[in-house]
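Bench notes, bay 3.
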Amino acid sequence: MAAGRSVESGIVTRHAPRVGAAKLTVHKHLPQPVVDLGWKAQVRLCGRYRRLAAAGKRNTVIVTAIARELAGFIWAVAREVRATA
């Protein structure tokens, strides 16, 4: 199930990074390093998606690569949360 969600998130990264109004209220309750990692992930993964697409890679390959890298960001957030707890 977790892998499926990473792939779904990989598909979304083709859109420009942004933080919606609903997420801004969530950000108020998160540690700043976690918010910063989330933004860094959005910017990096969107850029990677676009570079891979421009190189002519298949969409399934792109999304899988993005999902794999996203797992690394999730791991980093988990470490950050554990360190602050």
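Next record in the batch:
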Amino acid sequence: MPEVMIPTRQGDVPAYFAKPVGTGPVPGVVVIHDIIGMSTDLRNHADCLAGEGYLAVAPDLFHWGGKFACIRAVMRETAARQGRSFDDIEAVRT
């Protein structure tokens, strides 16, 4: 499955895109990575979900900076439901 770029107000977010076989409307899911970030394991999870009939997109939320700064920012911003990380997730969801 391909790597894609999701446009946001602050620039593109790289993401892994896994599409199920077949046509028609399908449910979608945003797959959020753990503290490791974008990994083969995350891609495998997205592929597994696609195998079950979901359109799965896994954004790289650490794409814009150093890993430790990004970890703190992602945790803080997703909890507050605002900020760059939250906006990135919302752009992928949309």
